[in-house]
Amino acid sequence: MSLQSVLQNTVREGDLTLKLPGRRTLKLGNGEGPPLVARITSPMWAARIAAKPGLGVGEAYMDGGLVLERGEIGQFIDLIGANAKFKMRKKRGPLRRWLRDRKREANHRRAARRNVSHHYDISNELYRRFLDEDMQYSCAYFARPDMTLEEAQLAKKRHIAAKLALKPGHKVLDIGCGWGGMALTLAEETGAEVDGITLSTEQLALAQERVQAKGLAGRVNFSLTDYRDVPGPYDRIVSVGMFEHVGRPNYQAYFDGVARLLKDDGVALIHSIGRPEGPNVTNAWVAKYIFPGGYIPALSEVLPAIERAGLMVTDIEILRLHYAETLKAWRQRFAAQREEIAGMMDERFCRMWEFYLGISEMAFRHRGHFVFQVQLAKRVDVLPITRDYMGEAEAKLTGPVRRVA
């Protein structure tokens, strides 16, 4: 199918003028919304976009094959997202999904470390430029619409802490601890002892610096450890924004590991992005340039593995537009620091990350992506029988940072 046919069938809303090679111009959409003008610079790029739009559009923007002459990349991506409902979705059979699982998502130990390094070992200074002060790189929790990013990220940590029903002295495992913010907050505000594990050397170095600076050495420990190699056991397990890197072939091993590491009266909380449409595949551009080995799960893929591991689902919460607002804040902060980031990295990197942050926000605003927090236990009686304890614990944690000796 030609590029013109593809676009006319899918871009039905918005106001997009597309300049094609050979001085042809397409007027797309219904004329509503901000007028955008984009130009495809060569027949080669037009052919690549038509053949594989999921890969080609992002590559064209990164490499100068798609140029915006009027409007911003965020508006262009928003237009794409608004028209996603008109796109015919390819049905991928179980054989194709299985082949892609094994090829791209196997994530054996060496591959897992390599894939994590691809995204997280770029530069801590890059992430400082657009994350909150605590460097939380996961969905914030906007308990009020007027919250700043810093307030919403602290609210997210306290929301999770409340669900964990933590007590002073509890031993906690943080799987995929990032730069250490969750582990440090749990230790400071609840008196827990936390082991955080990551596969990123950059994250580990900064997390270890932070634990020393806060005087929490001995109560918070960070290490470069694969989740499959942790000895345990633990009173509590938390994992925020890491499950998307596990890969479907490892779901059973992951939840079997959680069951093995969790004490009989323990509680676990897994926080992950989820997809609404059921099992699918990772966007080709995202898999190639942003998160190799990554996959956003459907709940229908996660719950069977939990059940087979002998774990009980004690609570599930779905956070819908919270991540859209988080990504909007990151995208705005990235744009404000763009010149400095381009000096650190380069122009192509900036275009790549603008596209990444934009399409990620689009997925939550227009395609139904969400975040799920699933609480797990081994026994039916380890938590109160109503959810009131969560709100009560969260209320106690609000206000200035509490430090528990």
Protein traits:
single chain; 405 residues; seven-stranded mixed β-sheet; globular
What's this model, at a glance?
It is built from 17 helices and 11 strands.
Characterization of the model:
The chain is of the alpha/beta class and 405 residues long. Helix content is 46%, strand content 19%. It is built from 17 helices and 11 strands. The strands form 2 sheets. The protein has a 7-stranded mixed β-sheet with strand order 7-6-5-8-9-11-10, with helices on both faces. Helix 9 links the parallel strand 5 and strand 6. Helix 2 packs antiparallel against helix 3 and helix 4 packs parallel to helix 16. The longest helix is centred in the C-terminal third of the chain and has 20 residues. The chain is globular, with a radius of gyration of 22 Å. The mean pLDDT is 92.
Please identify the structural class as seen in this structure. alpha/beta
Number of strands: 11
Q: Helical segment tally? A: 17
Topology as a string of helices (H) and strands (E)? HEEEHHEHHHHHEHEHEEHEHHEHHHEH
Distance between the termini: 66 Å
Biggest sheet: strands side by side, in what order?
7-6-5-8-9-11-10
**What composes the largest sheet?**
7 strands, mixed
Percentage beta strand: 15-25%
Radius of gyration: 22 Å
Topology summary:
Blueprint lengths: L2 H8 L4 E6 L3 E6 L5 E6 L2 H9 L1 H11 L2 E5 L2 H10 L11 H11 L4 H12 L3 H7 L18 H16 L6 E5 L5 H10 L2 E6 L2 H13 L6 E5 L9 E7 L10 H11 E13 L9 H6 L9 H10 L3 E8 L2 H15 L1 H7 L2 H20 L3 E8 L10 H10 L8
Parallel strand pairs: 1-3, 5-6, 5-8, 6-7, 8-9
Antiparallel strand pairs: 1-2, 3-4, 9-11, 10-11
